[in-house]
Design goal:
single chain, alpha+beta, 3-stranded antiparallel sheet, 77 helices, 49% helix, 7% strand
Amino acid sequence: MAAAAAAAVGGPQAPQPELPAPGLALDKAATAAHLKAALSRPDNRAGAEELQALLERVLSAERPLAAAADSEEAAAAGGGGGPGAAEEEALEWCKCLLAGGGGYEEFCAAVRAYDPAALCGLVWTANFVAYRCRTCGISPCMSLCAECFHQGDHTGHDFNMFRSQAGGACDCGDSNVMRESGFCRRHQIKSSSNIPCVPKDLLMMSEFVLPRFIFCLIQYLREGYSEPADVPSEKDLNKVLQLLEPQISFLEDLTKMGGAMRSVLTQVLTNQQNYKDLTSGLGENACAKKSHEKYLIALKSSGLTYPEDKLVYGIQEPSAGTSTLAVQGFAGATGTLGQLDSSDEEDQDGSQGLGKRKRVKLSSSTKDQSIMDVLKHKSFLEELLFWTIKYEFPQKMVTFLLNMLPDQEYKVAFTKTFVQHYAFIMKTLKKSHESDTMSNRIVHISVQLFSNEELARQVTEECQLLDIMVTVLLYMMESCLIKSELQDEENSLHVVVNCGEALLKNNTYWPLVSDFINILSHQSVAKRFLEDHGLLVTWMNFVSFFQGMNLNKRELNEHVEFESQTYYAAFAAELEACAQPMWGLLSHCKVRETQEYTRNVVRYCLEALQDWFDAINFVDEPAPNQVTFHLPLHRYYAMFLSKAVKCQELDLDSVLPDQEMLMKLMIHPLQIQASLAEIHSNMWVRNGLQIKGQAMTYVQSHFCNSMIDPDIYLLQVCASRLDPDYFISSVFERFKVVDLLTMASQHQNTVLDAEHERSMLEGALTFLVILLSLRLHLGMSDDEILRAEMVAQLCMNDRTHSSLLDLIPENPNPKSGIIPGSYSFESVLSAVADFKAPVFEPGGSMQQGMYTPKAEVWDQEFDPVMVILRTVYRRDVQSAMDRYTAFLKQSGKFPGNPWPPYKKRTPLHPSYKGLMRLLHCKTLHIVLFTLLYKILMDHQNLSEHVLCMVLYLIELGLENSADEESDEEASLCGPERCHDSWFPGSNLVSNMRHFINYVRVRVPETAPEVKRESPASTSSDSLGSLQSSRRPKVLQRENSGTAQVFSLVAERRKKFQEIINRSSSEANQVVRPKTSSKWSAPGSAPQLTTAILEIKESILSLLIKLHHKLSGKQNSYYPPWLDDIEILIQPEIPKYNHGDGITAVERILLKAALQSRMNKRIIEEICRKVTPPVPPKKITAAEKKTLDKEERRQKARERQQKLLAEFASRQKSFMETAMDVDSPENDIPMEITTAEPQVSEAVYDCVICGQSGPSSEDRPTGLVVLLQASSVLGQCRDNIEPKTLPITEEEQIYPWDTCAAVHDVRLSLLQRYFKDSSCLLAISIGWEGGVYVQTCGHTLHIDCHKSYMESLRNDQVLQGFSVDKGEFTCPLCRQFANSVLPCYPGSNVENNLWQRPSNRSIQDLIKEVEELQGQPGAFPVSIISETNLSKEMESVMKDIKNTTQKKYRDYSKTPGSPDNDFLFMYSVARTNLELELIHRGGNLCSGGASTAGKRSCLNQLFHVLALHMRLYSIDSEYSPWRKLTQLEEMNSQLGNEEQQPEVPILYHDVTSLLLVQILMMPQPLRKDHFTCIVKVLFTLLYTQALAALSVKCSEEDRAAWKHTGVLKKNTCDAEKSYKILLSFVISELSKGKLYHEEGTQECAMVSPISWSPESMEKYLQDFCLPFLRITSLLQHHLFGEDLPSCQEEEEFSVLSSCLGLLPTFYQTDHPFISASCLEWPVPALSIISQWCSEINAFTERHAEQGKALLIQESRWKLPHLLQLPENYNTIFQYYHRKTCSVCTKVPKDPAVCLVCGTFVCLKGLCCKQQSYCECVLHSQNCGAGTGIFLLINASVIIIIRGHRFCLWGSVYLDAHGEEDRDLRRGKPLYICKERYKVLEQQWISHTFDHINKRWGPHYNGL
């Protein structure tokens, strides 16, 4: 048959076999058995040959693919005869042969018995749900399948669930990757010991068959891969793979048979002899030859050479077909990275748009050619992997290769093979179109191999893994290099990666980098790397490709046209390719023994940096207006330095370079800091938003510790080793604010616009403060760092636990052991923060659980410097200050606006002591002096922030001063420099008291200082040399000299020159003479002239004057120690900790006095001199600021109070008018007949036009209402047991006990046996899909509403609602609405008119009622004349009908009959009354007009319904009213038999009858008529109760009752005794067959309880209560009477007296008897007997149904949503794999309905019906348009309401009170009962539309 199939397909025929052609499976089995026997003999050569021949024939490789290639159409047409059949045949043969004649299934079972596997090894693909436990993991990549996780014990561990991104495998049982304690029960036992040996003959056939089978597979793969001139299209490859699907699946199944089969496969795959025999292509078999040729072509075209091949390296002709790789074929011997292949050329043209830069070619002759270009395959495994890569990692193949991994021998072989193909993988990845998918598959494999340290070490030693990886990465990046434009654009030799290239943009490099990071996490591997100098050099070479990438040039003229977004790629590349490997290496340099490694890295890093400076031609000045945020070499250097000092006790100076190198090193990081300030000052706006994005990313939590922190640390190191004056002047020059630092009141800044000066100066000072106070790398321990970071984040805002974890920068190498969930995190968190549990705000917005700083943290640990460093958005700094202010106010520590507090710092590590010299250098002191002076004189462009930072710096200086004052320092100075003319020494403490008398300044001629006639010694204030882009400094000799003009730039250059001369004499020519020209003023600038200013101040005197200025009082500063000498002894005074500038000045003066007696004396002296006022006009300005502050505050407060009062009164009046409309009392219609003193009409306010007035027929007013269909009522159950969400297959929810179901059954029963029209009056509908009407209580004119709707329709703003469907929001309160309910024109009448006791007898009233019902259209509004009002009433009725679906309106058998509408209308009233009852909690005990009442519009609704009901007249011969109130002659009962009878009155639903009666009366209704109707109906209800009770009694009970009743029959109050009535009912009903058939049915209907009189009374009351409740509500709405409140047990009596059923309120001495409420219109017994006879007539034929209809269940419990399990995991595990019942697939987005538990596919197209997706469909069927679904994969609840939906939020929170939408964090979630209550409340009260704000249309697609 195989042969026949082959012939049919047209492949070349194999020779006919000698064996009889096997036609049946039986023959196959026989053949197999025969062969197995033959092979088992000792001499099995014959058997082997026979088998070979058979396999040759069966597995002939040419068939399927030849067919596929030659005749696709034929294959398609041939269906079964296509390639598929032959292949299946071949597979069948293989299965048979493997089993050796037995059944294949039995064979599988037999092999499995020998499975010794102690590993799980389950392989999964993307999107699989797995677990990771950090407590049990050794490798951070450890993962477990759900089954192993739940079988193990992980209670209290730090674990999470995650969705696999790339796929993975279960590590359970592998002790290399996880601790054994975490193994699951199945894999704990090391079972290899007790597994018996595998019998040889079991797997014998496999060893023969499998090599051929795998070779066959390889041949298919060779065949299928055609290498045309263009890259083979995805489609072709996929086609081949589809054909091979069954074969690969077969192999995959084999691997699942367990260890025994895996070891056979391993033998087959790794055996080199087998491979050589079969694939050499030397045999006579033509087809094998052809296949071998194809293989060689494939190798060659991949740019690889085959060693034995006659091809010599590099003679690959660059023909089109040679290299399809986008990697420039690294053509070995040619030695250059030539662009060989055409595809690359096109690529280049394509990239011309990006910056028009040519790619750079690098010489690659240095690389080890063999790594990149040579592949030699020696086994099946190797060639299989080759093809797997060629075909871009098909999922099936990957799974097969991974399934084999539990076999240790295979694991090693496979890992080596993988490494051997690493370069090839990289090349394929680069040219792949689907690089994302492919990356995932690569990592899926590599993470399994490289996470195992033992294996990684072995491969590193045996296969040069590290060399291969580094080389491959280098090659990969070399393909996208461009010339760097940093610094010297023309002559730069440096190349960087081009961030615009796909390679970087799409992160194509991440699989390789991630592998590299993975292996570096193993100590043994990392050590090899750190010891290997060659590797380090290569790696630094690699890192330097990123140094200076993505250069930004400041746009000075117009806005950039195209905002490039390449910065994402750049930041990601630096983080992933440079920083993460760096952190990986650092994690192994923790101890002293590893010093050598650090020295190596630092050495090669510095060499690379030196090369870089040479390549970009850098001397001493950075090029202006350009910045790159990427300096990975600097950061490597910085981080290794930090590690060396912190952990390895290395001497810092031993690893630092010379001064000149340090000067170069600091330039670029400093440039970044200055650029940050420029960006925030909006100097880069023309570069677009992306530059702000870069500045933010640079400090963002995931990047900061690999970017800004190392940069600042490096600057701190440079500052601690360089000359402080040089460093400080460099800073101000970089920030471009030198010209501002002059004493003169005017200056010119040649490099900065005036509007940017202030913020740049703030930036420079803030930077200095950060530089000097940050201790992250200068001596803080890890726990201190964590605490500081946490405090900073919490001070900005309260944070959730997860956002804190995210915001705290951790060691970003994810392989660094325990990730942030570590124990210290939790302990620090509990130390600094309090947990605020999630609360609900009344608006319904849900809070998460938040952490907020403890009070003592605000008090002692709030550190503004850390906050500034860590804020991404500037507003966060403000937010932190506001919160700090609030804390101080609240705790009463400081009332005003505080300044940022000064915080004590951790002591500096001794290596960095030099940093503090910055605070004690003259340059800084001159700057501080100048700025204090300028602030005092109110010069422009200075802010409070500047002053704050200046004071902060002074305070830092005082805190860190040398121990003893060294005034002699001055004499030690060498050549005198001009800044010596300012201060004598360099110690801040002594310089503070140094007076400066005169200052010579250069000012523009226009400056005020020049215009004075007086000599140049005026008391003016300026010093600025234009040449100086640096600060003024002044000299003072015996108080007479003048401080000299001082040019900072010149000074800095001199320093630079000195240093350079010291280090190398020939470096002289380096200093460029360009300087002066660079900074010289533009020609137009006014001439400069020199003026001398008289200053006569010291820093101390300036501070004291500042104090006066800030406080606005003269002499406000009084030295505190004069009063309290204690202060000097114990200076830590809490009162100085928090406060504003005044406090800061006082604190500084106190510290200055403490540090030196001289200072103390001078402060006292200054304070004694009464300081003359500074120029008065200045003072007034200052006074305005400070003195009026209090007064202005007072005024503001008063104004605010006045406003508030006004607002409150307005609100009150608004509330009152709203009440008028709401409270139905005002709408009480009045009895037209009574003559009335004054009649006042109800007045309504229109919220649109604002006019007030009554509602009239021609201009009616209406209430804003929302109509919605509701099935909430239908969800009531009579069972107290709550329903729970099913979480196992057994649990199912059956809806048969819901209210809706019971009513449905009842209606269909009635319709079966009785006349349709009367059935429709005997019951209410609307339990499902009933229309609920609610209002916000606002009214509007209907014509105003129409024009409002028009304007909404024309307004094209996207609203959340659809105007075409009549939806709108109330113009006043914005509540959602969709209709307007007309208010009936009527008068307001005093209530007491209605309360008059009626003196007419019940008989008269009954007559009146009957007559009134008979008058059609007796309505004040005449129906005949079409008024506006009646039109509106009709249209609203239409709206009500259209609100619900047709199936919820039409119940009659004759469609469209008027009875249907009639039924629908009174049911609307019923629905609204019932729902209001539910909103009140199911009873009326609370009384009053509850909130539900306030919003009620029942009164108006009743009018609309009544108007329409009166249009239908009831069938006159059948009036229920007559049946209730008149005895009929017996004969009429017989009637004509053939038509169906009317429904017996005892089967009627009394509440429905009530509504029918009332709606049929002319409105307004009189109170006494109402009471009359209620009394009559109560008699019917009571009789029903008795009948139902009688059915529930047992036969004996009935007999007993019958007997007692007969005795008392003639007593006077017989009609009011339930005993008598009951006995009468029993005797009447026994005439029929109702009580017969008792034997069969008794148990089903009734539990035989014995009835006591009390229990009977209780039963009767419970039966009647629902009717009394509804009636009382109705009375409350129609007549405005208040509902009395009461206890539950007296509810019956209170309601019945309130309804007038009890004559006077009843004495409660003896138990209350319900029968006393009865008032019979006609003799009780006769009418009862009339009613019973109807039933007897029916039970003659249908006794069972008769009984069922009598027992009405009227006690419904409140509706509830399903109960949810405590732990979300129980839901998730059951539902996320559950198959959908409709389409039997596992849905992509499963959801479950929380009302009824139905499982649905969200958005699933599989379950779509007529364009409605399943969720929308279900929401219509289950909730009449409202659906509440829990999305299983997201833990979120989604609400569907009609055509809109919204995400409600989650009711499951984690241990920290947070939602976990989309289960991203995967932490265990627990139910939040409060939230679930809120959800349920919104469902029951129908307020989803009002409370949830974010709605959108779903277009039926959910």
